[in-house]
Design goal:
- This protein has one domain: Sandwich (Jelly Rolls).
- By secondary structure, the chain is of the alpha+beta class.
Length: 159
């Protein structure tokens, strides 16, 4: 996952007409954090908020696919939509460090995680399968990595 954020940072730099290492040089030695989160779906009801509307404070966030839906993204015009992450695909979002460093050219991505109706439908399906010997895993687990810039990086916008 960390390699994915470095590759995306290089690609972004090239796409913006900068040297490929413009961002990655600033990421080396950063306090990157792999932070899986888990929610016991047996304890919550539809509408429960696992991570309220926010953007991340880091440089790039990378999300793996969860076993259950519930990640929602927000467009710049404040339209909410469900994140659909295909198998074998990772979702990357810019954090506020990326927005600062690019002077707002790249915007931090707003998102939230809630117990949605789609999540409940998957839970109900699994419960039905359990009657026939299926697995009993009712935890929504999200593998998320937060890549950061080093502590000594000036966040003034680049030219």
């Amino acid at each position: 996952m960390i390699d994915g954020t470095f590759l995306a940072a290089e690609m972004a730099a090239v796409g913006m007409g900068m040297e490929p290492s413009t961002f990655t040089d600033r990421m080396v030695g950063g306090p990157h954090l792999l932070a899986p989160t888990a929610s016991d779906l047996k304890k919550y009801d539809v509408g429960s908020n696992f991570a309220g509307f926010h953007y991340d404070l880091n440089f790039i966030t990378i999300h793996g696919k969860s076993r259950y839906p519930g990640l929602f993204l927000w467009s710049r015009d404040m339209q909410k939509f469900s994140a659909v992450i295909p198998d074998g695909v990772l979702l990357l979002q810019a954090g506020i460090m990326f927005e600062q460093l690019t002077g707002g050219y790249v915007k931090a991505g707003f998102h939230e995680v809630i117990y949605s109706d789609k999540c409940k439908a998957v839970v109900d399906k699994k419960l039905e399968e359990n009657k026939n010997g299926g697995d009993n895993i009712m935890w929504r687990i999200s593998s998320t990595l937060f890549s950061h810039l080093r502590h000594d990086v000036d966040l003034s916008p680049l030219k």
